[in-house]
Amino acid sequence: MTPARHYLDANATEPLRPEARAAMLRALDVPGNPSSVHNEGRAARRVLEDAREAIAARFGAPAANLVFTSGATEANALVRHALGGTRRVIASAVEHDSILAARPAALLPVDRKGVADLDALAALSADGEPALVCLMLANNETGVIQPVAQAAALCQRFGAWLHVDAVQAGGRIPVSLSTLGADSLAISSHKLGGPAGVGAVLFGSKAIGPAPLIPGGGQERGWRAGTPPLPAIAGFAAAAEAARGSPHLAEMRDRIEAAAIAAGASVAGAGAERLPNTTCLVQPDVPAMAQVMALDLAGIAVSAGAACSSGKVASSHVLAAMGLGPLAGCGIRVSLPWNAAEADAEAFAAAYPAMVARLRRAMVRAA
Ligand code: PLP
What we know:
The chain is of the alpha/beta class. The protein is built from twelve helices and twelve strands. Helices cover about 35% and strands about 15% of the residues. The strands form three sheets. The chain has a seven-stranded mixed beta sheet, sandwiched between helices. Strands 9-10-12 form a three-stranded antiparallel beta sheet. About 0% of the residues have low confidence.
């Protein structure tokens, strides 16, 4: 009999929702290209625009202000491309690599709980130079929620553009570009339970012209050329409709945390407002990658830091920014998917103390 598996790595990618699968299968049978004027093209255009409307409404922006991309990496890059040339980029130190890779001019520090320092943001913005501020809504490694609405008020005061990476918050907590007061928002389908390979930028009321990373046929109102992937976009929209928050996961997360704390772990970001599905467990002296591999052998899928950097054994830049020092290499991320069951939390609670004891014994023998 195959041993049971417990998938607790939703922040890397959520399992596909049945609504998304069904919408994709329907869209696969729509033969037209949305740019064609004939009947089939118009039918394809309807699928595309219905999806645009559903996703935009879900995340508090007008449909005309949504640009489909290949995912949030591209969505973040597109905003930087459109604004980064004329504005100084200020990003929080705990942003995703898709924001940090292009080296912001200034990094906003975070406190021990992982919350961005808004006094530092005010000080950096006050010099009058136009800025593009990048602040994520929820951190992918710790689930810590940032004070985005307060940051938006500051940005408005100083004439800065606020871009919010809402990838991990979307579908898990309420997310609305207009309520947050942000200027742009990045979201990703596969973090909502849709397919990978599609995402979007939503723009607020400040008009900026198209500044495509991929020029060509003028699709997406000139923002992104290329024939849009209708089945993926339809799946994205269905997932966005179906993902209506996950407060029920908080109890399972708390159960997991209690077991880990009893086995010597601490929770990164404890005391801050956090996503209900995410916890980052720091076990002193036990390398994160060894923990991930040992848990995998026990049937449990978790990750060390961000998924895109798994495989690289470097310590987490998020935990380092929170001042964890050498402990930054000892944190694992447990992220419950939308369809997590009690059995998953129970399996983790049983496996974690055994894993820690085994690794500690092995470390003593090796010393
Ligand atoms: N931003 C955050 C916070 C993420 O967690 C991720 C993916 O892990 C991304 C951006 C990139 O998203 P995508 O996989 O759609 O490119």
